[in-house]
């Protein structure tokens, strides 16, 4: 059900011909209210696509009526003309829906540096408007896929004494996944009745702990966008903590699905850092490990090469993370292969071939803070997909 | 001739059985003077191998008599016992040469997290001492190779009105090549008569501009060491600038050879950033591009994917490099594929298949500073070599 699990939303996904395969490539999500609350977070890349520039303005007032998304073209690095294309897309969508263009979020994904074929996109928007349905969440999730092999959706329903409310979402992304944010588009909807400030705070807390801690290949996109829309249709008014918990659960599920479908990966790797003096330090150390091509290639070869973990940990500056290199411990899938910076248990006790998931635990012995960052292994298929597929 | 091109040096390379292949794995370089000036730079990794800890102490006084090097084991993450192994190696070498252990630099390279087989290494040192020769430079260069497919050596001879002096060097390294330093060992010798401060200043200037700007795979080693030894045997006393120029030329040649022999690479990529407000900014932007797996995979596929260059440039924080994303220009092999942050010349004009070398030029339009960082493409063979070879 994805974005239409919550009450007050309709969605659609249609094929406008932007993809040469003829697969669905235009998605639309509409908030029918009564509220039109919206919040969004965007890529921290300084090179941003036209739809990111546009949508930042749209959500600045905490309101949005619709999100129109296309795959088959990122509309990034397309100059002033590309921005006009986004503007036209928003106006066309808004006119068809009877809402304001200034309340219409636009998201695009696909190849950078190519103009969108507007003569195909705008009729596709019309078709999506005509196809809008309270059951359209799955179609929308299909239409935003690029190299994804499966659509990613998640739903959390919260039952309380006074009634139930729901958070549902969809996401796309299978490569160029990196912090701040992963390469991805995601729309999350809720029928909770919350104000814009609450929606914004909940979304930022949720993405910081989930999407921001997925680092498939260290490459940050120009188009990343996560939008949260609240319709208020359930009549339920959760607290900030309650909303944050539900949005975090949906975001965690979606981001875990991104890792599981990462381009060409054969392993999902959770790098957990404990004993850090701060959460930021734990994240920095975990990220250093998730960015090590050598370690990621070793995992592909089912080699529990803890030396490559330590050499990655050692690249984090002292100003960022406190630790004494001679006290570092590393476990892989529960086997403590490195103890006090030296040789621990026999690395042959670690069987990486048995399952897709790999757990790396690094203990810095410098405090109580922890963090987990997810990544994937570096495989032949990753190289193949990203050398043959031009995006 | 490598490290024995300059007068006053002997060297050797022998097989001690550290490598299962039976190939040479112990190298020795001896400075016969009259001077025993030495300088060295080491990895900036906080996790360092025992020989790095040892050798930092050795060169602290600006003097060294010998460098003993082994491949077939990094002696990294081996605890206090590993440090004792390094100490024993230095003492054993010094005793055989009749010098002080405190003047004996030790370098190791190979698998992290495994103790060295001292019962093989020490007899290997004896054999190397017995084989020392003024023609031994090539043998030494062979003995420090790990996954290198060719030995790397370089020689510069400077002729002046008063006589000639020479700088020669050897290096190893084919993977785990990253800034501060690349994964590598290098010994550079000169028969110039210079003091320790001059040697140190020349070496630091040379490595900053050469070895530090090689970033094959973003992975920083625990063992990187570059040692400069000066014998004074030529009787010539160049200025700091003259020595820096010659050492830089040797270092540039050696680091270029490292890139050309990088594990599994099919392209050498020079990322040149111009128009930066500072050299540090130029290096940071260039490094962001050389660390993009997506761009490196695209180059492997002979795809001039400038969108991946721009998305990498955009990850550099404003506090590090000033630029306006809408004025960025990118050329690949002379074709300006991106102009003012948008589409430039037709990307199909770029032929990456024709040659191994790729030149990427990024103009930030924010100043006059420039820098070049070298990297390689991301290939199937890189993944294969680093998943199958455990180092």
Automatic annotation (TrEMBL), chains A, B:
It is an enzyme of class 2 (transferase). One of its GO terms (molecular function) is L-glutamate N-acetyltransferase activity, acting on acetyl-L-ornithine as donor. It catalyses: L-glutamate + acetyl-CoA = N-acetyl-L-glutamate + CoA + H(+); N(2)-acetyl-L-ornithine + L-glutamate = N-acetyl-L-glutamate + L-ornithine. Substrate binds at residues 146, 172, 183, 263, 386, 391. Its EC number is 2.3.1.35, 2.3.1.1. It comes from the Bacteria. InterPro entries: Arg_biosynth_ArgJ, ArgJ-like_dom_sf, ArgJ_beta_C. The active site is at 183 (nucleophile). GO terms for cellular component: cytoplasm. The record marks 109-110 as: Involved in the stabilization of negative charge on the oxyanion by the formation of the oxyanion hole. GO terms for biological process: L-arginine biosynthetic process; ornithine biosynthetic process. Keywords: Acyltransferase, Amino-acid biosynthesis, Arginine biosynthesis, Autocatalytic cleavage, Cytoplasm, Multifunctional enzyme, Transferase. It is found in: Cytoplasm. Pathway: Amino-acid biosynthesis; L-arginine biosynthesis; N(2)-acetyl-L-ornithine from L-glutamate: step 1/4; Amino-acid biosynthesis; L-arginine biosynthesis; L-ornithine and N-acetyl-L-glutamate from L-glutamate and N(2)-acetyl-L-ornithine (cyclic): step 1/1. Its main location: cytoplasm. The record marks 182-183 as: Cleavage. Gene3D superfamilies: ArgJ beta chain, C-terminal domain, L-amino peptidase D-ALA esterase/amidase. Belongs to the ArgJ family. NCBIfam families: ArgJ (TIGR00120), PRK05388.1 (NF003802). Catalyzes two activities which are involved in the cyclic version of arginine biosynthesis: the synthesis of N-acetylglutamate from glutamate and acetyl-CoA as the acetyl donor, and of ornithine by transacetylation between N(2)-acetylornithine and glutamate. Heterotetramer of two alpha and two beta chains. This is Arginine biosynthesis bifunctional protein ArgJ. It comes from Sanguibacter keddieii (strain ATCC 51767 / DSM 10542 / NCFB 3025 / ST-74). The lineage of its organism: Bacteria, Bacillati, Actinomycetota, Actinomycetes, Micrococcales.
């Amino acid at each position: 059900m994805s974005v239409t699990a919550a009450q007050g939303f309709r969605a659609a996904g249609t094929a406008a011909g932007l993809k040469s395969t003829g697969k669905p490539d235009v998605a639309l999500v509409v908030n029918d209210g009564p509220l039109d609350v919206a919040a969004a977070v965007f890529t921290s890349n300084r090179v941003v696509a036209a739809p990111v520039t546009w949508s930042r303005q749209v959500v600045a007032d905490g309101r949005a009526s619709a999100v129109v998304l296309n795959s088959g073209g990122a509309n990034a690095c397309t100059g002033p003309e590309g921005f006009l294309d986004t503007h036209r897309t928003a106006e066309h969508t808004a006119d068809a829906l009877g809402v304001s263009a200034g309340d219409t979020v636009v998201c695009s994904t696909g190849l950078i540096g190519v103009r969108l074929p507007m003569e195909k996109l705008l009729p596709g928007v019309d078709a999506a408007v005509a196809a809008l349905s309270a059951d359209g969440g799955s179609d929308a999730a299909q239409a935003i896929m690029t190299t994804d092999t499966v659509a990613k959706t998640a739903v959390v329903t919260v039952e309380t004494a006074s009634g139930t409310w729901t958070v549902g979402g969809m996401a796309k992304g299978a490569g160029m996944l990196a912090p701040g944010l992963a390469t991805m588009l995601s729309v999350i909807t809720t029928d909770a009745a919350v104000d814009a400030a609450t929606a914004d705070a909940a979304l930022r807390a949720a993405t910081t702990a989930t999407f921001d801690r997925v680092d498939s290949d260290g490459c940050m996109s120009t188009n990343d966008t996560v939008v949260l829309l609240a319709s208020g249709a359930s009549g339920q008014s959760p607290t900030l903590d309650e909303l944050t918990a539900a949005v975090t659960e949906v975001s965690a599920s979606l981001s875990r699905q991104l890792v599981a479908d990462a381009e060409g990966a054969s392993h999902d790797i959770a790098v957990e850092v404990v004993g850090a003096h701060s959460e930021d330090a734990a994240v920095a150390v975990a990220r250093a490990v998730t960015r090590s091509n050598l370690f990621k290639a070793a995992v592909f070869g089912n080699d529990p090469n803890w030396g490559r973990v330590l050499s990655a940990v050692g690249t984090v500056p002292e100003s960022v993370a406190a630790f004494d290199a001679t006290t570092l411990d590393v476990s892989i899938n529960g086997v403590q292969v490195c103890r006090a910076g030296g040789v621990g248990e026999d690395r042959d006790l670690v069987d990486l071939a048995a399952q897709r998931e790999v757990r790396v635990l690094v203990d810095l012995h410098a405090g109580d803070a922890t963090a987990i960052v997810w990544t994937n292994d570096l495989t032949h298929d990753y190289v193949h997909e990203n050398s043959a597929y031009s995006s």
